[in-house]
Design brief:
CATH architecture: Orthogonal Bundle
Helix content: 55-70%
Number of domains: 1
Largest sheet: 2 strands, antiparallel
Strand content: under 5%
Shape: globular
Order of helices and strands: HHEEHHHHH
Radius of gyration: 21 Å
Strand order of the largest sheet: 1-2
CATH topology: Arp2/3 complex 21 kDa subunit ARPC3
Number of strands: 2
């Protein structure tokens, strides 16, 4: 889904850039409330995982590509504001180091792949947790649904941006069919990865999953129990 330079005209690219700057600015302020001694190291690991996942690209149409996005996963693990920052940093590094997505289209890419995925994915995740039982299975299921929806949502957002300022000689109908159709399938794969990852972290360190804080009890280390041998009283 990385948009190259020149694929979207200048006025729309500038408008998307303004949206991206505003979104990242809000995320920077909000991340101060999310980052702590537990979240900060996990945020780095999450960004590295998203970076690796996004390197797997599938060609779609006229220079665009489809791949795993990771916005929902990042938001669930480290919080929505920090999640936006993680994905935005990944997109910036990819544009600078690998020319994966144009610099003039960076605003478009951040808007679709960071802002839209986090807003739709984390919003649905929290909505589902309000109605589902407070169990690990519910958190994993909500994570799956969030990822499934977030990926095609980003494709829809890109299609709308293309309709407003696309420069390629491809009809909006073909772009919509290619982008949304492919990303529905990619969303299923990303949902599986997201659910498995969140479930795995919940199994060992539920306190590290930002989206499940207050729902899951932290693991307790017990040094004794019913099966523990009791010391025998000493005889005088």
């Amino acid at each position: 889904m990385h948009v190259p330079d020149g694929f979207i005209d200048a006025p729309v690219s500038i408008a998307a850039g303004a949206v991206a700057v505003a979104g990242v600015g809000v995320a920077l302020r909000g991340a101060r409330r999310e980052l702590d001694d537990r979240t900060a190291p996990l945020a780095g690991l999450t960004a590295a995982f998203v970076f690796a996942a996004q390197m797997l690209n599938f060609p779609v149409a006229s220079g665009t590509s489809g791949h795993l996005l990771g916005g929902a996963l990042a938001a669930i693990l480290v919080g929505p504001y920090t999640g936006v920052l993680c994905v935005s940093v990944v997109l910036l590094m990819q544009a600078l180091l690998f020319a994966d997505g144009g610099l003039t289209a960076l605003g478009v890419n951040i808007t679709t792949m960071a802002l839209v995925t986090v807003l739709t994915g984390y919003g649905l995740f929290r909505l589902l947790l309000r109605v589902l039982p407070k169990t690990r299975a519910s958190v994993s299921g909500a994570s799956f649904a969030a990822a499934v929806v977030s990926v095609p949502a980003a494709a829809v957002a890109f299609t709308l941006i293309y309709a407003a300022g696309g420069t390629a000689d491809v009809s909006i109908g073909k772009v919509a069919a290619a982008m949304i159709g492919v990303h529905v399938l990619i969303g299923i794969g990303e949902a599986l990865i997201t659910a498995v990852t969140v479930s795995s972290v919940l199994a060992v360190r539920p306190d590290l999953v930002y989206g499940a804080r207050g729902l899951m009890k932290p693991l307790e280390l017990r040094t004794g129990g019913r099966g523990a041998a009791e010391p025998k009283p000493s005889r005088a």
